[in-house]
Each structure stands twice: as C-alpha cells, then as structure tokens.
Amino acid sequence: MGGGSQGRFVKRTTPLWLLLPVFGLFIWLVLYPHLFVLGDSLWIGERLSLDGYRTFFTSRSELEALWGSLWISGASVLLSAMVGIPLAFFFTRYDFPGRSLLAALAAVPVLLPPLVGVIAFLFLYGESGIVTRSVQAALGLERAPWRMVGGWAILLVHTYSMYVYFYLFTAAGLARLDPSAMEAAESLGAGRTRTLLRVTLPMLAPSLVAASLLVFMTSMASFSAPYIFGGGFRVLTTQIFQSKVSGEVTMAMVQTVVLASASLLFLWGLRRFDRGREFAAVGKGVGAVRKPVRSPWARTLVPTVAVAGVFVLLLPHLTLLLVSFVPQGTWTMEVLPSRYSLENYRALLERPQLWTPVANSLQMATLATAGNLVFCFVVAYLLVRGRFRGKGTMGFLTMLPWALPGTVIAVALATTFSVNQPWFGRFILVGSFWILPLAYFLRNIPLVAQATIASFRQYDPSLEEAAYSLGAGWPTTMRRIAAPLVLPGLAAGGLLAWVTALGEFVSSILLYTYRSRPISIEILSQLRAFDFGAAAALGVVLACLMTAAFALGGRFVQGGLTGPRG
Known about the structure:
- By secondary structure, the protein is mostly helical.
- The protein has 26 helices and 4 strands.
- The longest helix has about 35 residues, at about 60-95.
C-alpha cells in the first residue's frame, strides 16, 4: 500500500460529476450569502459607500457593542479555563469514592440548550430567584441583594455553560499524556509548579487552544444570555437583532460584517499562535495513575467538596424541573413555590399551540441532520480520498460556518433568500418553513464533516480499491464498503448536529415565523407572557429529548465502534 497505489486510487475516484456539485453547493449556500451581506453593507441606495462603516466606527454605542463582545468573549475564555482546567486535573489525577459518577456529572451543563440554561439561571439567581430570595430572607433585606443584569451576569452564565469545553478537552489531553515527562522533570529537581508550567501545560497546548477557540466563538455568537440579562449592556449579536427589528438594514449588515471579521481574526490569530507549538512525549505509553486519597480526613473532605460542587452545577437543572411543576400565578413572593401540579405538562399535551413548536423542532432538526449526513459524507470522502485543485478551499469552506456566529449566518441567509431572482441563485425562502432547516444544516456542516473525516482516515483505502477491482462502481463501493466503516463517526457527528439543531436559538430568532417557530422561540414566548411553569416544562421536554438522544445515540455509536466488521 505505497504512495503510488494511493495516488492511482485517488485519481480514479474523484469524478467531476461528484466534485462540481459539492463545490457548487458550498459556493451557493456558504460563500455566496456572505458576499451579499458584504455587498449590502457597502451599497447604499444606488451607489457604493462607506457611510455605514463610518457611522459604525464613529458611534459610541456601536463601539461599545464591539468592545462588549470582545471583552465578554475574552473573559469567558479566562473564567471557563479557571473552572474547567482545575476540575479536569482534580478528577483525572485523584481517586476517591464516587469519582467516576461525579466526573460524569461535572459535564451535565452541556445538556442544557443555551436558552434553557439562561432561563434556569433566571429562576435560580434572578431578582426573584430561589437563591436570591433565600439570601434576602436570611439577611432580612427589603430588596434583593443583587440584580442579574449586565456584563457580570452574562459572564456567570457563560462560565457555567462553557467551562465544560475546557473540562472535557483537558481531561482528554491528560488521559493521553505520558507521565514519564513529568517524572523526568521532577527527577531533575523541578517543583510541582515549575513542572506544571514548563512541561504539563505546554503538552496540553493543542487541547487548551481548541477549547479556547470554541469558547471564544461560542461567546461571540451568544445571544440568549445578553438578550435576557444584558439590560443596557451592548454586544454585537443583540445590536444586529435590534437593527433588523428597527429596519436599519445597512447598519445590520455592517454589524454583521464586523462581527464576522472579529471572529475570523481571532481564529486566524489563534491558529497562527498554535502553529508549530505541538508537543509530543516519548515514553512508555502508559497513562498517569490516579493518586488515591489516603488521609482519613481527606477521604471525607474531598468527596464532600466534590459532591457540593457538582450539586451547584446541577442546581439549574433541578430548578428547571421544580418550576415546571408550578401552576401559573401561584409563585409570587415565596422563596419556594407553595403549590405543585402536573398542570403545565397537561397543558403541553392538550394545547396544540404548545405542542406545535416541539414537533417543528423535531422535524426541522431531522431534515437538517439528514442533509448533513449525506452532504458531509461526500465532503469527507473528497477531502480524505480526493486529489484535486482547490482541496484547501473546500476545507476552508467546510469550516467557515463554524467560525462564523449563528447571527451572521442567519443575516446572510435572510439577505440572500429574501428576493426571487432565480438567474442569480436567489429564491424567496424567508418566511417559509425551509429557511430554518437550511440555517441548521449550514451551521452544523463542520460538526458532521470533521467526525466523518476522522472515520475515513481510520481505515485502509485498499478496501475500496479491492471493490473497484471486482467491478463495483463508486455508488456501490460507497454503500457497501465506505458507509459501514465510517458509520460510527458519521453517527456521532449527526447526533451532535441533531441535538444542536433541536435547541438552536440564535439563528431561529432572526428567521422564524409563527407557523414554523421552534421550541426555543416558544420557550421565550412563554417567558415573556410570565408563564414560567410552561416555559420550564418546555425546557424540561427539550432537555429530556437531548438526553435521550445522547443516551440512545451513544449506544448506537459505541455499538458501531465495537460491533463486527464485514
């Protein structure tokens, strides 16, 4: 299986009839809409003009929004790292009773969709939240001791929901880390702190950079927390929404371009910083052994602290579940609700207007994910097996939807598909059912593609070569050979895409109509109507659907990974 065989294989299996449609779809759906946004930001009336950008960069409120987005995102990275990295070291390096269960529970914030997590924080730490009223009652205060408004409130929500990226990435990096490098440093006289700073953290650099990038991009795209808790605090995502609602189309386009540029600039800078900073340890390939907690007082204290910490992390979930049993209008000034019933869940089943958004979300997430599975399978095949001009461009277009905030993608789609110009590839999709599945599909291309690419790289292409030599065509080879072998990775990516689309809020709020409203929009609608129980019940339904998907999908993926191979 030398390079010549691989080269002959690639040339024969990169047909133009497959390559051109993929490039065409990328250009039409990924690149083309953003060019329209750029054009609309420069085109005022019937002339090209920089007036929109001049207005933006001379407006105090716009610059405040840009600075707000940047510092909130940077601070979110810092605070998430300060929580996630120590947690990963704690659960990875020490062994104590209940460690496995507590380590798994430490990742549960990932199961709360952004809007649902924000609502849980509102019920828990808001001005009339359970914790707030408890503190107020304990101290005998006439007013709430704090208000969940402004940058610090957004940071609190971001840290809670995003530390998981650092926790999971660092834990995975530590699991792969050979302890011989740290042992060598200690044997040469380096203390624990010096070993951590000069050996361990540099070797974890790829994991930490990936987590930093994910947190920064997620924070730049965040809409739920700034929208609910922002108050007078400005960020670009809420500014874009306000400009769209106010009919200031040019300013919305300018804000979109600035937000996209800031995200891409950070991506470029971090990639440049990370280039050449890969560390590999040459050792025995044995993972670090967890240190048992031997001291009697420590064996009691450590699990107690861990349980208390995990309980704090579970409080939003428990609060959401609690509030979902509270009938409308029965929870007023009490610390805890005085009445509980199944009324909200009964209403969810009996009132079609509450069930419709759930059905909409299930249908749209399934359609978008089905498109992701088919399209990304072909894209992954071309990027791994193909040899053609423009492979780097295809790789860039594959990752572009991940690098751009959901607000940017929504504005680009709304701009492109709001007029009927078939000869320019523009059709009226805005106001229709199909605009949201299209947005979900585009947003999740990187998730499914990267998972499938990894699976393609894990099996020998000579299996496909053998099928061709026996007379099988490309479709048969893909269906009988490639698809079963890449199924675990494809399914894992599809699972993440489906769950993400199910709870998507950022693109939805800019593109939905009343008939096509997803569950996240209905939750917001119930919250605005002060029907907190219904909002919480819908949040619980959404969280349960996501948990069930992870449980069933995880079994399927594991079955695919461990099952027999044909």
